[in-house]
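ASSEMBLY PREDICTION REQUEST
Request ID: AP-0331
Submitted by: J.K., bench scientist
Number of chains: two
Total residues: 374
Priority: normal
Notes: Please return the full assembly, not individual chains.
Input sequences:
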Amino acid sequence: MIYLRLFFEFFKTGLFAIGGGLATIPFLTEIGQKTGWYTMAELTNMIAVSESTPGPMGINMATYVGYTVGGPLGALVATIGEVTPCVIIILLISSMIYRYKDSFYVSNALSGIRACSLGLIAYAFLSVFTSSVIYLDRYRETGDIASAFDIRTIGIFLFILVISRFYKKSHPVIWIALSAVLGMVIFSI
Amino acid sequence: MDNKASIKDLYSSFFRIGLFTFGGGLAMLPMLEKELVDKHGWCEEEEIMNYYAVGQCTPGIIAVNVATFVGFKHGGVTGAIASTLGIISPSLIIITLIATFLRNYATYPLVQKALKGLGAGVCAIIIPSIIKMAKSSITVWYLGLLSVMAFVIAEFTDIPIFTIVIFGILAGILIGLWRSKHDLS
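STATUS: Completed
Returned structure:
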């Protein structure tokens, strides 16, 4: 029964991959090698599509791999399998947090967590920024600092930064859609 | 349980968040703020920070962690399941369509161009979200110091994120003990 196996494999992935979507990639590689359901080249394409379509990347990957193995039902089974452990664990943690959130230890632990989290968000931001607005990897490859700067991405970045300040109440959906359109237009000129 | 939200609202809010997230957890921040804090008032700025940090050191996908936390808080176990289904639904629909009709999707030049624009634009709208979060979570200077330390450790060492978060928990408790000893509350 392939669906049962699919559920089980993704349940394991969801249970042991810690730290979000990217952390699931080694598990997906292992599943492919172990079962022969897909080749590494197919997986590479699935990861590329997952990065470039709407939806959290980790969910997209589970859906795509599941679809490749077992069609639409496979997609559903794999995705549900992957999120089930997470849902159970978070339900346990959140019922604990709500029960003890006013306790001295939990409230102080949470304020420490938040401060740390801010540093980690800044770290994640820096790595996204240096690969999508300025291209640090190009500079590392070529040694030419000018190659890291693309006036087009910097322009889109600054434009969205400024215009979204003027219309603070707007839904981020507008800016997300606008930056996709700007990218299609500016990089086609 | 805090103020209850309808199952339908939870599902549709997380559906929208899923539909407009490109990439990983960070890209989701502006959508989370708009839908959860501004629009529905389901959580505070600093709660999103809690979820993000817990998501980094628990198994699974950060988006699902947030959906479960918020769904549970406002609608119990049913709410948690509705929110999680909401956030995975767009992926199921879109990926199924692409896998059926557009297998070479990722190689289309126009898609690549749109993604470059998205990368730059999303970076721009993340900045105000981060600033808002900093304002809400850094209430005293030593918490700011803790943030800077977490950033430096993550950027310049190979110490895993998990360890950094555990360090944050301990530091938070120690700061609390120190403050209560010196009666600084």
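REVIEWER COMMENTS: Helices of chain B lie at 7-19, 29-39, 45-57, 62-101, 109-137, 141-156, 161-181.
SIGN-OFF: pending second reviewer
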